[in-house]
Design a protein that fits this description.
It is built from eight helices and four strands. By secondary structure, the protein is of the alpha+beta class. Helix 1 packs across helix 6. The structure holds flavin mononucleotide (FMN).
């Protein structure tokens, strides 16, 4: 698979098969992705992978955590979105939610079904493996963008192996539980999780294709 094909094929998969991802694949991909560029070559990414017996323990822990904090822990380490998100960004966020739920036949008024679907984040949408990315608290926006480069490289390399992913900032609502489980030192904070596994080809969620803005809405070509 060439890079263009991997880019085109990668989507956020939200229903996975139980089939485990071979440890050899994730070891290789996590190492290879470290060729991702970073400003000053800081390589600010720290990665934890959870699978197998550790995933079983993680899921058991989350049962208790969710019972106590169904809507996230009281202290969040960062806001996922700006508090007063404005158009066109707010429209795009609305659109992806609406089209996603429509794909699964969940109407806007059905808050219960929407809530139940959202909570599937806590189960990694059934994925057998997860990645967590943490970053040293001294890092700022430029280094956080480096994390994105690393993580997209991981997702594309996994895609090339036929392995699907869904990035999950959802986990930023559970920094304490995740940090305790992973043993993250206090100087580091959790950025995101990523669900990793083989896509369930029969699940309607995986037929969803998120829209993209028109080229002219985000790119200006000067002299080309
Ligand atoms: C950093 C990051 C965090 C995300 N967090 C979540 C999440 O918590 N739950 C979820 O279902 N999707 C999450 N997504 C997936 C986005 O909704 C998705 O990438 C976007 O709608 C575009 O769709 P696509 O990935 O299928 O192209 C996240 C994506 C990124 C890059």
């Amino acid at each position: 698979m060439d890079v263009s094909e991997a880019v085109a094929r990668r989507i956020s998969v939200r229903a996975f098969l139980e089939r485990p991802v071979p440890g050899e694949i994730i070891h290789r991909v996590i190492a290879e992705a470290a060729r991702a560029p970073s400003g000053g070559n800081l390589q600010p990414w720290h990665i934890d992978i959870v699978a197998g017996e550790a995933m079983a323990r993680f899921r058991a822990m989350m049962k208790d955590v969710l019972a106590e904090h169904p809507r996230g822990e009281p202290e969040r380490e960062y806001s996922v979105y700006p508090p007063d998100l404005t158009p066109p960004y707010s429209d795009r966020r609305f659109d992806v939610g609406e089209t996603m739920y429509a794909t699964m036949g969940i109407v806007r008024e059905d808050k219960k079904a929407r809530g139940a679907w959202f909570r599937r984040n806590a189960d990694f949408f059934g994925a057998p493996m997860a990645l967590f990315c943490t970053v040293d608290r001294q890092m700022g926006p430029p280094q956080w963008s480096d994390l994105g480069m690393y993580l997209q490289t991981v997702m594309l390399l996994l895609q090339a192996e036929g392995v699907s992913t869904c990035a999950q900032e959802y986990w930023s609502a559970y920094p304490r539980a995740v940090g305790k489980f992973l043993g993250t030192p206090p100087e580091r904070m959790l950025f995101t999780g990523i669900a990793i596994g083989y896509a369930d080809p029969d699940h309607p969620a995986n037929t969803h294709r998120a829209h993209r803005a028109a080229l002219a809405d985000f790119a200006t070509f000067h002299g080309v």
